[in-house]
Amino acid sequence: MSLTDDLQLILETVLPADPSFRRVEQAVLNSCIRDSRRYALAGSVEAFLFSAMRLLALPGNGHTRLIPNDAIATLPLRFVGVGRSVQLIGTATGMTAPQGALLTVNGATISQIEAAAAEFLAGTRQRKRVIGPILLAWPSALERLGFSSNNGTTEYRLQVKNGRTTNLKVANENTVPATTLYPRNEHGQTDPTWKPEAFVEMEDWQELGFSILLPSFFDPGKDALRKAMSEAADRVSACANRTLLIDVRGNTGGDFLLTMPLIDAISQSASQQVVVLVDKFTFSAAIVFVAILKHRLGDRLKLIGEEMGDGLTFFAEGGLLDLPASGAVVRYSSAFHDWKTGTSDETTPPEIARQIVPVGELNFDRECVAGHLGAGARGAFYRRILEDFRG
User: Fold this and answer.
1) Which of 66, 195, 281, 376 has the most neighbouring CB atoms within 10 Å?
2) pLDDT tens digits for 231-253?
3) Range of 158's domain?
4) Is residue 40 a contact partner of residue 48, using CB atoms and an 8 Å limit?
């Protein structure tokens, strides 16, 4: 197959199925398609990928995007968005580098690079902060954005411990498969291969309350998630009248319908405050989980963290499309969700439309960025939060 076949798959599968493309002006759409076709005919894989990223980013719908990770190589550095900064948090095996906040790349500030990359990244400002850092380790992307060096290396300036700054220079040919450091669904954890050990982790904090960690709602088999939600619902019902802390940071979504028993138990049992932790890595079904709880609990729900990866109005469902010639993957949506006004349309599956409620706004009671903490540090963080919000 050729790159033109990859493009044809996008045009025949994604654009007709994805309602978000209805919002894009036809002239703009046609211009991007012409660019992608030109690079495809030239056989330039990375140029084609970059142009397809721009094409699929046009609707501003983060659920629809080209994921280049399987098709490209990056420098052996793992960058992750933390708050409004970008942090170097790890390296590939055999590479050592100081960890810290990234200040510049080849002399350009991160804000300059983010502004130039914005049209190639799909979704909200926060989603771009989640999926964008891979570009900082992708030499071809830096070149196409106009931020490459002329000597075959990429130079990073970092702020490390005690506020010191240091430079890190990496040869552009020193690359590894991008998936070594950048997972398809970026979760922000230090270990790129991280997967949740369980769908629910619960802890009793005695007089302070009860905590529930929900790292993922994605379970292709559905039985394990369904069972975990049922067990969590029973524990919540048994812990009525106590402050409840729920952590959905890093939860990139899945099937929110399977979480309804837990939502029901929380809604029926929580006479005290319910504190929910979210971050930019909170997406899709996890956002819906928070939205339904907010609608039901009102002021009893306290929201802590940072703006989530999507708003309350978004597109979802859909599927994955493999592009055989380039090796990339396209994630596309097929259904409209509006949890802000509580409306749906003909693309919304009936079982989801029945659950949609008008949430209005999700305003934060406290903004903070704690990052994804290890078990020990996470426990200390939970304790501080529960102490602050104890009934």
Assistant:
1) 66
2) 999 999 888 788 999 999 999 99
3) 72-180
4) yes
